[in-house]
Model the fold of this input.
Amino acid sequence: MSDKVCGKLIGFDDRAGDDMRRRLKGAALLTAEVLYYMPDHPRLLQTFLWQSLDEAPTFPRLAQFLDHWRREIEAVIHSVRVAHGQPLDVPGWRDARAIITMN
Done:
């Protein structure tokens, strides 16, 4: 899509809409730090950070990612640390007791 005055217009990305719908259903940003043994040097540990939107407390996307890791990647996982943000919430209502007008 383009416009003669503005040039090229950027279209709406459906993935952004999907992310917002997932956030409204309770998903929040999950960060997982995977500590794993390097396949070529089994005494050395390497770290890998992974982020995705996921729903607590079951974390289905994290489980899917770790299952994929165990099936497809040679590196053996030592440990996984998880940080999960707060889900998107409806704005709170506050009753205004007074209105102050300043000139």
